[in-house]
């Protein structure tokens, strides 16, 4: 079968800081290719809609699959499915990915017959099965499949992460992917899943609170095949098991791989496993992203981060002493008033690290979605991007955005301001000589992207597709398994995994 896989356009955040390769879709593409199909990828982060339609004309796909990791992309993906059916009525359309998995029925309803199937969960195995089932009209037997005609059994976890290395060769315009000065930048996955259970996050509910690793040998092989000098490690929490991090490092040394790395981890993991992070500094680790989320005990408890502020501060000291640049995320609550913003501003500008603010957002698939008692102020999917407020703000909405933008701008002045631009001139000169302009362009976009008027105006847009709001507040079971996309794997295995992790009850 001729299969075209499509990733939607970038969201607000990606307009300035980064644009990264659609790794999950590349893995699905590889699985589809290995099953004997002809497959192409179009990433609308770097291609236009017109280019997608031109590709459809020449390639004439028999199936088009959309990647829907982000809720804010829902309207675009529904409109694209409609456009595909309009142009190629016999083409099979399906949607997969993180957010799509949590709202499958809702998507089918919006699609009004133009979306043939939503494939919940990990896509490697299920897409192979789906493509096999389409000609036989047996789609409703595929694990994870949700169609207007019926649903398949629960999705199945990929047991061996080594099996499908991403089809990076199918992704065009690869030099368009970057994160800050790491330009151009590729992505890689070392582990999948997360054993914690933060209330605002759906990473653990998607994977049924499981956690799996690729083998160090296979990772070494994959890293050696990557052309880009920079690599973003997509793991939710890097180096939970230090021996895995060391073993990957040894593969890197053995193969003489020289790259610069960006990764995300937790404060307690960094503290417990500082040796592995220090070792990776020597291997090329440049940036470390820490989701601190709050700067006080009350906030940390609310998000169920299972770390204290003391641990967070200690972790920051460790990261700085290792010599990596630290990026911190804090969650801004819509209830924040001017004083709260001022406190956060003062804290964020008093530390040497890069601080990002995201807005507390209940997402389908998170515990917050079912337990948050505040009513949504909008049903516009596009605003569910953790940069907009979808819950009632204490300040008038425009003022909330003004405070948010001012805080972000003041913090950014330290890192993206004229002084830094001057300091970075040498670096930019080198990038320009290499024909890399992503980072350079991102610096000039800041004021256009972070703009209170623009954010406020986003709320006034016409809403065509409305999110299905959560029902009445629901008491969750102790296991909270009703939130899971992939059923939780065998209890003993999960407990053994959790026991090896700091702070997980
Ligand atoms: C890496 C990552 C990013 C990267 C790159 C993402 C990219 N280009 O795809 C960056 C840093 C850019 C990023 C940015 C953001 N992210 Co992000 N990100 C992740 C993270 C940690 C891992 C994703 C990943 O690559 N996993 C590894 C690959 C192999 O898995 P995968 O992509 O999920 O793909 C699998 C399945 O989903 C499925 N699948 C995927 N595509 C398709 C397509 C088809 C047809 C099928 C059948 C199946 C399928 O099969 C794949 C293989 O099993 C996830 C958390 C998570 N664990 O999922 C959050 C996550 C997806 N991000 C999230 C958010 C909120 C954001 C931002 C909006 C944050 C912000 N500050 O603004 C931005 C917006 C990005 C944008 N589009 O512009 C949320 C999504 C919330 C939501 N419900 O919408 C998540 C779930 C994090 C969280 N804990 O809440 N992100
Ligand atoms: S530790 Fe990170 S990935 Fe894991 S549940 Fe919490 S926020 Fe999500």
Outline the fold blueprint:
Blueprint: E1 2-7, E2 18-19, H1 23-34, E3 38-43, H2 49-59, E4 63-67, H3 74-87, E5 92-96, H4 98-102, H5 104-111, E6 117-119, H6 123-136, E7 145-146, E8 178-179, E9 185-188, E10 191-193, H7 203-206, E11 211-213, H8 216-225, E12 230-233, H9 242-255, E13 260-265, H10 267-272, H11 274-283, E14 285-293, H12 297-302, H13 309-322, E15 325-332, H14 338-350, E16 354-359, H15 367-371, H16 397-416, H17 418-423, H18 425-433, H19 438-449, H20 452-458, H21 491-499
Parallel strand pairs: 1-3, 1-4, 4-5, 5-6, 9-12, 12-13, 13-14, 14-15, 15-16
Antiparallel strand pairs: 2-8, 6-7, 10-11
Helix pairs in contact: 1-6, 8-9, 9-11, 14-16, 16-20
Bound molecules: cobalamin and iron/sulfur cluster (SF4).
The site of iron/sulfur cluster (SF4) has 11 residues, from helix 7.
């Amino acid at each position: 079968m001729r299969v075209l896989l499509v990733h939607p356009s970038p969201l607000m955040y990606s307009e300035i800081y980064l644009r990264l390769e659609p790794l999950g879709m590349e893995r699905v593409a590889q699985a589809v290719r290995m099953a004997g199909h002809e497959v192409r990828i179009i990433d609308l982060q770097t291609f236009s809609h017109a280019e997608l339609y031109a590709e459809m004309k020449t390639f004439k796909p028999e199936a088009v699959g959309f990647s829907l990791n982000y809720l804010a992309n829902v309207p675009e993906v529904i409109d694209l499915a409609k456009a595909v059916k309009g142009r190629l009525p016999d083409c099979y359309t399906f949607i997969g990915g993180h957010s799509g998995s949590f709202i499958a029925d809702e998507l089918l309803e919006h699609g009004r017959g133009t979306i043939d199937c939503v494939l919940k969960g990990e896509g490697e195995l299920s897409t192979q099965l789906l493509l096999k089932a389409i000609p036989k009209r047996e789609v409703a037997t595929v694990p994870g499949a949700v169609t207007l005609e019926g649903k398949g059994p629960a999705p199945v976890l990929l047991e061996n992460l080594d099996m499908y290395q991403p089809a990076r060769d199918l992704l065009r315009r690869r030099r368009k992917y970057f994160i800050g000065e790491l330009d151009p930048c590729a992505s890689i996955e070392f582990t999948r899943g997360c054993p914690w259970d933060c209330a605002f996050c759906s990473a653990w509910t998607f994977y049924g609170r499981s956690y799996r690793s690729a083998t160090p040998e296979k990772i070494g092989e994959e890293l050696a095949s990557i052309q880009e000098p920079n690599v973003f490690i997509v793991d939710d929490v890097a180096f939970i098991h230090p021996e895995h991090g060391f073993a990957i490092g040894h593969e890197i040394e053995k193969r003489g791989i020289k790259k610069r790395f960006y990764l995300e981890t937790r404060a307690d993991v960094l503290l417990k496993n500082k040796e592995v992070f220090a070792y990776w500094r020597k291997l090329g680790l440049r940036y470390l992203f820490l989701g601190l989320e709050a700067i006080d005990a009350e906030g940390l408890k609310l998000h169920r981060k299972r770390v204290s502020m003391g641990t967070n501060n200690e972790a920051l000291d460790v990261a700085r002493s290792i010599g990596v640049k630290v990026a911190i995320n804090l969650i801004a609550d819509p209830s924040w008033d001017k004083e709260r913003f001022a406190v956060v501003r003062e804290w964020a500008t008093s530390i040497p690290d890069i601080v990002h603010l995201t807005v507390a957002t209940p997402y389908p698939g998170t515990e917050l979605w079912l337990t948050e008692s505040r009513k949504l102020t909008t049903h516009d999917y596009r605003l569910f991007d953790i940069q907009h407020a979808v819950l009632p703000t204490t300040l008038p909405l425009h003022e909330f955005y003004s405070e948010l933008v001012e805080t972000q701008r003041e913090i950014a002045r330290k890192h993206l301001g004229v002084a830094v631009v001057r300091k970075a001139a040498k670096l930019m000169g080198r990038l320009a000589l290499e024909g890399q302009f992503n980072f350079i362009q991102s610096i000039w976009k800041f004021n256009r992207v972070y703009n209170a008027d623009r954010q406020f105006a986003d709320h006034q847009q016409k809403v065509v597709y409305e999110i299905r709001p959560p029902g009445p507040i629901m008491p969750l079971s102790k296991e909270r398994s009703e939130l899971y996309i992939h059923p939780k794997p065998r209890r003993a295995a999960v407990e053994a995994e959790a026991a090896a992790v700091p702070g997980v009850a």
